[in-house]
Design a protein that fits this description.
The protein contains eleven helices and 15 strands. Strand 1 and strand 2 form a beta hairpin. Helix 3 packs across helix 4. The two termini are 18 Å apart. The model has no long low-confidence stretch (mean pLDDT 95).
Length: 322
């Protein structure tokens, strides 16, 4: 059968199929996808716990991609290298995107680096800047610092002038984070017990980026400095947690939740445009490192999912079409 390849969700299984190229709607840009990122949201959707939002393909996974513009359209030229975030459908060789939701990909970056850019860096930039209002000189704690968003958040926070501390559940990730990331300290945390962090960091933190959720929430509030801010980005440890209201009130603290996928398209476009204006120049000149990513073949999606489920991943995985 002719046509482009994609991975289609059949129940909880993935099937490699051919499909006709999508037809861009008015105002869209057609992109030939060269690589796509693999994220925990994909695992959740595959398990039936994170359905695609309205308007996104319900049976094609994938939230981020890198590729080439197919033809001149809406200010883009055929062959332009781009990356982007989408609400679904990136596990395919071709997709259509809003022209202002595309990020110009630096010429020196690989397709895999481009495919690992949007989900991690846009999430980190939004959480630290727009939501937490991070200021230079503040202390930031990042849970799951070895994850894709965690690695990006460490880089962005340090670039913004903050002092970075992290937690992880793996000793090997602690060692790698201390060797590769701009982190002053990284603690191995078991079962959400943050007492060791509290003992070692008595001044507390101005901002906590929590990619774990669950039992971490109570400890987050207790670790905050006065007027501190917690931003809950992920729920690796579950969606229910205890909130110590007395400590929250006494510290005049705040807890925020955020997700990109279900936001209206105009909000995702606005975030992308702010990122391109404020962060992309730093990535281009090397003031911020490109995403740390391991590249696999696009035919090895099952391997990528298995590794992600085991936690056997540093930062991010991307799958590259041959």
């Amino acid at each position: 059968m002719s046509g482009d390849r994609l991975w289609r969700l059949r129940g909880r299984d993935l099937a490699l199929e051919r499909h006709a190229p999508p037809a861009p709607a008015g105002g869209e840009v057609e992109v030939r996808v060269r690589a796509f990122g693999v994220n925990r949201a994909d695992l959740l959707q595959r398990a039936g716990r994170y359905p695609a939002p309205s308007g996104a393909p319900p049976d094609v996974l994938g939230l981020e991609f890198a590729g080439e513009v197919v033809r001149d359209a809406h200010g883009w030229r055929a062959g332009d290298r781009v990356a982007g975030l989408c609400a679904g459908g990136a596990y395919a060789e071709r997709l259509c995107a809003h022209p202002r939701a595309l990020i110009p990909l630096p010429a020196s970056w690989s397709w895999a680096q481009g495919a690992a850019l949007a989900e991690a860096y846009l999430t980190a930039f939004d959480a630290l800047g727009a939501i937490a209002d991070l200021r230079a000189g503040e202390r930031v704690l990042i849970h799951a610092i070895g994850s894709g968003v965690g690695v990006a958040a460490a880089a962005v926070a340090a670039w913004m002038g903050a002092e970075v501390v992290g937690t992880t559940r793996s000793a090997w990730k602690r060692d790698r984070a201390l060797g590769e990331l701009p982190a002053r300290a990284v603690y191995v945390v078991e079962g959400g017990d943050l007492d060791a962090v509290a003992a070692a960091e008595p001044e507390g933190f101005h901002v906590i980026i929590d990619l774990v959720g669950g039992s971490y929430l109570e400890g987050d509030v207790r670790l905050l400095a006065p007027r501190g801010r917690v931003v809950v980005v992920g729920l690796l440890a579950g969606a229910a947690g205890q909130l110590p209201l007395g400590a929250l009130l006494a510290k005049r603290a705040s807890v925020h939740g955020t997700v990109l996928r279900s936001r209206p398209e105009e909000e995702r476009v606005a975030l992308t445009q702010r990122f391109c204006a404020q962060v992309l120049p730093a990535l281009r000149r090397g003031a911020l490192a490109p995403p740390a990513v391991e590249a696999l073949s696009a035919l090895s999606v099952e391997v990528a999912h298995e590794r992600l489920a085991r936690g056997d991943v540093w930062s991010q995985l991307a799958c590259v079409w041959d």
